[in-house]
Fold this sequence. Notes:
The protein has 41 helices and 31 strands. By secondary structure, the protein is an alpha/beta fold. The strands form eight sheets. Strands 23-13-22-19-16-18-17-24 form an eight-stranded parallel beta sheet. Strands 25, 26, 27, 28, 29, 30 and 31 form a seven-stranded mixed beta sheet that branches. α8 packs antiparallel against α14. The longest helix is centred in the first third of the chain and has 30 residues.
Amino acid sequence: MKNIQYINAGAGSGKTTKLTQILSEELGKSDAKIRPSEVILTTFTELAASEFRERSRQQLFQDGHPDIAAELDSATIGTVHSVALSFIQRYWYLIGVSPDMKVMSEEDLQVYISESLGEYVSDSNLLFFNDYRAYFDLNDQGKADFEFWKEHLRTIIDKANNYSVDIERSKMDSCAIVEQIFSGRTLLDRLLLDDFIRVLASEIKDYSDNQKKNVQPLLDDLKNKLTYAVIVKIYKELTEDKPKMGKKNRTKLINLIGQDKYDALVANLKDFQTSSEGDESPGGMMKKMIDILFDIAKQWKDGFNEFKTRRHIIDYNDMERLFLELLSMPQVADEIKGTYKLMMVDEFQDSSPIQLEIFKHLSDIMEQSYWVGDPKQSIYGFRGADVELVSEITRKFLDTENALDLNLTHSNLPNSWRTREPLVELTNDCFTKAFDGIISKENVVLKAVRHELPQFSKSLSHWNCSASKKEIYVGKVADRIKILKDSNIKIQVKGKAECRPIRYGDIAVLCRTNQQCKDFANALVGKGIPVSFVNNDLFQQTEVQLVFTLLKFMVDSNNKHVRADLMRLLEGITTQEILLQRLDYLTNLKCNEGEEDKTDLWLEENSLMSKLIAFKRTVKNLSVRDLIESIIYGLALPVMVAKWGDENNRRQNLQTLCILAKKYDEHCLQMGIGASVGGLLTYLSSAEIDSKIDNASDAVKVLTYHGSKGLEWYYVILSSLEEDSLEEKIFVRKSFWGVREMRHPEPSDRYSYIVQFLPRIVSTKNTNLPQQIIDKCKELPSYNLLVNKECNELRHLLYVGMTRARDYLTTLSHQSSPSMLPILSWIRNTGISDGNLNGEAVNLWYHNPLKPVFEDITDCPEAVAPEITEYKRYKYPENPHLNEGDKFLSPSKLPILEDFALENIEIQEDLDSRIAPYKTNSTNQADAGTCIHNIFAVYDPKMSHEQNVAVAERIRNGHNMYEVIPDIDKVIISIEKLYSYLEVTYGKAYKIGHETPFMHALSGQIVHGEIDLLWYLNEHECVLIDYKNFPGGKAMITNPDPQNDHYAGKYAPQLKAYREMLQASGLTVKDSLIYYSVMGCVVRLKM
Length: 1087
């Protein structure tokens, strides 16, 4: 890591402008030391890359460099993955990948996971998963959660893909953590429990009806299925202050059992909850789940790697790994050093560990690198970014001694161009405290460029609402936003001195979760306020759940759970009614035990089931894509769901399902894997809808803090500030339990991370764990590591939220207790203040120069909705393809040079090296030519003839050209004779360039390709050679007949473009040659 200038760019400090200025300065220097083709710049998204290219072009025009601006498309600007892929495609032969490799997108990967997981999950695994679910009584929305393990497994696989994870160590450490939490060795005392059951059964008849209703299910469970969930419930009943059986009944129970036995039972139940003794203890069940899921993940990963190798596929993680491997090769490093001079990295703080390694390697090669970022805005840890690692690297720039030796320089963009001065000062003060000891003050503080205007109102406010229900609170916020818009409060138009009244489109509400976004959006809609937000809960909609259930029915029409769901969804029968029907049916079935046929035919005679079974027969041979369309339109679901209300949205949701099914089918086809209903259901349940908020519309924007990064609004409202994610019950449930990646305790070149996995043991995802388990968790080293990680996340996310505001910032609080103001725990947990709202929030920020204007909005006037409300709930585009015309041209497509005379074609030498036999035909001629090109590209004159033949043989075999080019020795002789000719004619090569990337700007178009061979005579002069594989005779290549496709003059435009590009980069081209490799003939074109 050397020769880097790190630029710390705080929010609103003009990062992109600075980058474009640096690029323009470097390219516009009078010595023309760096050309656009010698620049590599990485960004976080392709959209950002496109925007940067355009802004850089504008900057170059502005700085008086129109000629350089015209060449800017020759610069390598894109995401890390697109840059990596370009190098892999160039040097494929060095890293053991196929030249015709395919790229697996993130969506392809999700489809593959959905389709392939079933191969690695055995029947015995599924039986255990079902036992585990029943043991811990795992539910989802009131129904048994039979697929809980899939979320665990997919998350483990995602972590293993995004990080270099040591799976075996992860399994061992996770089991060790279970042993520490469930450290007891207690077995259930069945004698004590049986005594308790006997006494309770005899006493329950005297309980009140309500008490019986609450206690009888517990007694039934104790008799029939003694699981962990039942143990926890009975323990609570015996120890809580308000038992369901009533205190008097419990006292009587204690007297009947005896206090000593009762206390012994309570102690036994408590100890068993943290026991690992035996396979059926909670710890034993968890360890078995950990073993199984990590083993499946390892088998899947091995199978995935084998699948990619067999199919010549690479995914995004492979791109990074292979690019890093290439950068470690001296040959590649030398060629990159000779081709590129400037490296620029945008959004450096969002880099993953392997991306950081790539940037460090490139900095060792490049003459100069610029890394631009802001560690305070590093909020994408869930996508693989490592905040701690980024901070460690940026600190090296402040280490004066080492930085000097390595030419590491550091600078700050000092100004805030976005935000009003009072808010800039507030942010400086707050986050100097929040990041104290983590990020230096100079990397936090910005100076406001904008000046206060007399038209401005107070920039900081706080709205508090005292309401018992969440619905009232979000409704009152909507009412206050309506008042805000009607108040004509003034905002300063960006880039201008003028002010105007605020509009709805100037306002944004930021939330922690998608559900909170939905709550606010619905409240705003209810008040007639236009809203723009992305609703990501498509798969929770009733109409979508109906399609899922019908798909399951088509797979297994005898599944009783599926039949019950269909009755509930299609006939409106309640779950309780369905349960009673089922119990009646089973009772009748048992009464008829004497009958021979005891087949379970529940609902078989129901007219709805009969129709669906008949429909199933008509669609049994359809593809998955056609099946889902047949279900939706064949069963007239759009008409049916329209009757449920919200017709347009429900119809659009069904259409979105068809689009996703089509995508799934296409992905399966592209990867050569079979599509299945099970795979489709898994894919749909995890598919992400790629939809962006409409930031240009005149509507209030409602989105998450994560989604707000990179955006800005005139008026920003911060919600979710009361949430205490560090409160131990919430923290253990949301941030400690489950699947968590952590730094490997003993990192190596192969493994840098481990995954801590604690499988779910509480009935729902929102159920807190027992206190005694929480206390055990707090004793673990990983607990404090994850607490620190959560604290960091809170600091970074709040910084991003506060810095989205240009003119006004408002914080919200929901006061659920009428007598006590809430504590804004999020602010407290960052270390900014204690989050106290007392005294009308005067000390909320501990910032005396600017105190918020406090307002109780509980009784603010209610907004009335007009009859017509503009509200776009979903916006799911079909990914339209833009037709940009022929912006990019292949050199072979350039127009013929009409004035290129036959006299300019000279046959220089017949090398007597014809490749024969050469058995091509019209179908394989292009493939044979590509094969020879690839062999010539890897030819190394430093290797022996035999070694080069061995390499060539592998390439030929990879192209399946055994019969077309049977004598591979002749191919190596052909290139050897060419090299000998060049050395005799022009002298020993100063250096040799293979497959040199070529991009040349013409009027309105870009010509791009690769130059086959450059024979450098010195640093500034070369000979250009292009390979052609025409196997005919010399008469054909000198025949100018327009119908003759092999006339050498037809290649003049191609070589002319190559020549101009090389000359633009400062090289003199001494000669332009065509080498007809199969003929063994060298032709010179006089240009």
